[in-house]
C-alpha cells in the first residue's frame, strides 16, 4: 500500500532528511512540501490530501498547532505527526489536544522517525481494512447473503482455536503470560470475533464497560461466578500497563528490537511510551504518571490477530 506524505517545516535540511528517510525505507511518496505557515497553507494541504502530514511546531506565519486545528475543523482525514525542538509539556499536550498522532523531538533520530511512521501507517492500514470489511458486510446485507441459515458463511467467525493460539502468542510477546488480565484480553478478542460490528464496543464514543459487561456475560460468568465488570476493568488496565513497561524496557535495551518496533507505536501512545522509557532509565521510584490508552491497545490487539488469519 502506497502512502502519500506532505512535509511542512521551515528547515530545508530537515525536510530533505525526512524525505530521504521516507524514500530510502520505502515508506511511501512525498507529494508536497512547504517552508512556512504563510499563505493558504491549509487549503494547499487539503488540495493534496496526503495520508500523513509531517509538520513543525514553530514556523514563520501560522504555527503548527494553529494549522492542525484548522485542518481538523475542515475534517482533514489524514494522520498528523508533529516534529519540533520544543519539549515543554504544555505545548506537547496542546499539540495532542489539537489532533496530532505523534510528537517527535528534534534533532531527528532516524530510527525513531521510522518507528513512528511505521506505527502510523499500520494504524491507517487497520482503519482502511475495517472500513472495507464494514462496506463488504453492508453490501452482503443488501443482497441477503448474511442470513444465518444453512450454507451461509459467517464472515466474522474465524476459527476460534486459531484465534486463541495467535492471541496467546501475541500476549507472550508483550510479556503478559501469567498476568491475570491476559485471560480477560484473550476472552475479549474471542468475543469481538463473534460480533457483526465491533464498533458497537470499540467505537470512538463507546465506553469500554459495555465491552467488559458483554464479555463477562458471554465468557467469564461460568468460569468465575464472582467476577464483575469492575474486576475485569482493573485486571485489563494492570495488564496493559505491564505490557507498556515490558515494551518500553525492550526499547531501552535495543531501539531496533523487533518487539519494540512491532508493538510500541501501534499498541501505545508513543509520547507516553517515551515518557515510560525515560522513567525507567532514570529509575524513578515515585508512582508513575504514564497513561495507557486501553481502547487503542485492544483495537490494535484485535486487528493484529484478525490480519494474521
Topology (elements, then pairings):
Elements: E1 4-8, H1 12-24, E2 29-34, H2 41-48, E3 52-56, H3 64-73, E4 79-84, H4 89-98, E5 102-105, H5 110-142, H6 160-173, H7 180-192, H8 199-202, H9 208-220, H10 229-253, H11 258-267, H12 270-281, H13 294-307
Q: How would you describe what is shown here?
A:
The protein has 309 residues and is an alpha/beta fold. It has 2 domains: 4-121, 3-Layer(aba) Sandwich (Rossmann fold); 156-307, no CATH class. It has 13 helices and 5 strands. The protein has helices at residues 12-24, 41-48, 64-73, 89-98, 110-142, 160-173, 180-192, 199-202, 208-220, 229-253, 258-267, 270-281, 294-307; strands at residues 4-8, 29-34, 52-56, 79-84, 102-105. Strand 3, helix 3 (64-73) and strand 4 (79-84) form a beta-alpha-beta unit. Helix 7 (180-192) packs across helix 13 (294-307) and helix 10 (229-253) packs across helix 11.
General shape = globular
Strand content: 5-15%
What percent of the residues sit in helical stretches (DSSP H or I)? 55-70%
Uncertain stretches of 5 or more adjacent residues = 145-158
Structural category: alpha/beta
Outline the biggest β-sheet: 5 strands, parallel
- Domain count: 2
* Count of discrete alpha- or pi-helical segments spanning 4 or more residues: 13
User: Element order, helices and strands?
Assistant: EHEHEHEHEHHHHHHHHH
Would you report the number of β strands?
Answer: 5
Amino acid at each position: 500500500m502506497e502512502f502519500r506524505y506532505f512535509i511542512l517545516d521551515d528547515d530545508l535540511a530537515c525536510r530533505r532528511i525526512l524525505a530521504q528517510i521516507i524514500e530510502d525505507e520505502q515508506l511511501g511518496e512525498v507529494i508536497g512540501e512547504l517552508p512556512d505557515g504563510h499563505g493558504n497553507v491549509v487549503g494547499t494541504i487539503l488540495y493534496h490530501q496526503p495520508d500523513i502530514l509531517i509538520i513543525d511546531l514553530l514556523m514563520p506565519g501560522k504555527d503548527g498547532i494553529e494549522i492542525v486545528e484548522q485542518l481538523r475543523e475542515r475534517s482533514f482525514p489524514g494522520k498528523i505527526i508533529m516534529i519540533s525542538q520544543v519539549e515543554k509539556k504544555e505545548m506537547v499536550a496542546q499539540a495532542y489536544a489539537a489532533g496530532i498522532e505523534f510528537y517527535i523531538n528534534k534533532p531527528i533520530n532516524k530510527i525513531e522517525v521510522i518507528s513512528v511512521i511505521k506505527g502510523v501507517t499500520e494504524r491507517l492500514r487497520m482503519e482502511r481494512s475495517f472500513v472495507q470489511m464494514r462496506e463488504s458486510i453492508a453490501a452482503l446485507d443488501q443482497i441477503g447473503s448474511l442470513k444465518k441459515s444453512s450454507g451461509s458463511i459467517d464472515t466474522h467467525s474465524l476459527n476460534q482455536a486459531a484465534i486463541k493460539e495467535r492471541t496467546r502468542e501475541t500476549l507472550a510477546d508483550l510479556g503478559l503470560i501469567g498476568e491475570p488480565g491476559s485471560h480477560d484480553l484473550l476472552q475479549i478478542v474471542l468475543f469481538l470475533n463473534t460480533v457483526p460490528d465491533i464498533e458497537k464496543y470499540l467505537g470512538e464514543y463507546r465506553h469500554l464497560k459495555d465491552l467488559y459487561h458483554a464479555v463477562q456475560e458471554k465468557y467469564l460468568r461460568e468460569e468465575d461466578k464472582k467476577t464483575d465488570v469492575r474486576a475485569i476493568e482493573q485486571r485489563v488496565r494492570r495488564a496493559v500497563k505491564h505490557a507498556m513497561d515490558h515494551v518500553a524496557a525492550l526499547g531501552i535495551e535495543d531501539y531496533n528490537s523487533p518487539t519494540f518496533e512491532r508493538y510500541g507505536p501501534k499498541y501505545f501512545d508513543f509520547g507516553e511510551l517515551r515518557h515510560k522509557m525515560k522513567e525507567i532509565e532514570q529509575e524513578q521510584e515515585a508512582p508513575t504518571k504514564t497513561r495507557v490508552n486501553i481502547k487503542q491497545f485492544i483495537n490494535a490487539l484485535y486487528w493484529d490477530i484478525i490480519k494474521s488469519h
